[in-house]
């Protein structure tokens, strides 16, 4: 399960509600071509995507075992959290309309913070798309959802993702225990970044 960031920000009630409303109303199509909020029509595609351990293996907060029942429940829960302004589950559809990736944004409005997790299909990995997609998503989360901080985790052996997060300018802040849905623990590297630091880095 996703855990709130280590750093605790002071957040007004007005900011909390603004973030919730931004999550509820965000147009995820502005993230890029083929992006859509996940719904029940995407369950089969998500199962196919996530059944590949090259895609799902490094990700700690996916429903397991990965099957139609667990993914259906995950989609429905994510839709409810979206209505509460606390999460977005987004699919990335290829030119044929097949699920080629996903992103899940967990939001803590009372912390003005968010976490991003996701993956792309194995045939699209190591092509440079992942790094570019991550960087674009970080900026979108800061500016569209209005959070002031992002936190990220990656498994100790997931060097590819670690390099992408470091390259985006996030600050390593030690390690933390990520808890999987089955209660087991995955030791992870932990990063944070503030929105103003992102803006300065990208001159927004």
3D structure, described in words:
The chain is an alpha+beta fold and 204 residues long. It has a domain at 13-150: Gcn5-related N-acetyltransferase (GNAT) (Aminopeptidase, 3-Layer(aba) Sandwich). The chain is built from 7 helices and 7 strands, in the order αβαααβββαβαββα. Strands 1-2-3-4-5-7-6 form a 7-stranded mixed beta sheet, with helices on both faces. Helix 2 crosses helix 4. The termini are far apart. 34% of the residues are buried. The mean pLDDT is 91.
CATH topology of the domain at 13-150: Aminopeptidase
The overall average pLDDT, rounded, is 91
Structural class: alpha+beta
Low-confidence stretches: none
Radius of gyration: 16 Å
* SSE succession: HEHHHEEEHEHEEH
What general form does the structure show? globular
CATH architecture level-2 label of the domain at 13-150: 3-Layer(aba) Sandwich
The number of helices is 7
Number of strands: 7
Sheet with most strands: strand arrangement: 1-2-3-4-5-7-6
CATH superfamily of the domain at 13-150: Gcn5-related N-acetyltransferase (GNAT)
What is the CA-CA span between the terminal residues? 32 Å
For the sheet with most strands, the description reads: 7 strands, mixed
Proportion of helical residues: 25-40%
Q: Look at the structure and give the CATH class of the domain at 13-150.
A: Alpha Beta
Strand content: 25-35%
């Amino acid at each position: 399960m996703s855990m709130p960031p280590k750093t605790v920000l002071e957040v007004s009630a007005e900011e909390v509600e603004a973030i919730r409303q931004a999550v509820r109303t965000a147009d995820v199509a502005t993230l890029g071509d083929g992006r859509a909020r996940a719904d029940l029509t995407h369950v089969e595609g998500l199962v196919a995507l996530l059944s590949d351990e090259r895609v799902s293996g490094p990700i700690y907060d996916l429903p397991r075992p990965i099957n139609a029942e667990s993914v259906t429940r995950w989609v429905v829960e994510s839709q409810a959290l979206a209505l509460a302004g606390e999460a977005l589950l987004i699919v990335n559809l290829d030119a044929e309309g097949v699920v080629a990736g996903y992103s899940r944004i967990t939001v803590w409005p009372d912390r003005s913070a968010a976490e991003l997790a996701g993956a792309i299909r194995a045939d699209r990995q190591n092509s440079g798309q992942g790094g570019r997609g991550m960087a674009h998503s970080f900026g979108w989360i800061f500016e569209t959802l209005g959070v002031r901080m992002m936190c990220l985790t990656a498994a100790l052996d997931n060097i590819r993702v670690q390099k992408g997060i470091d390259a985006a300018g996030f600050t390593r802040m030690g390690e933390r225990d990520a808890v999987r849905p089955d209660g087991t623990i995955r030791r992870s590297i932990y990063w944070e970044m503030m929105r103003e630091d992102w803006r300065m880095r990208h001159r927004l």
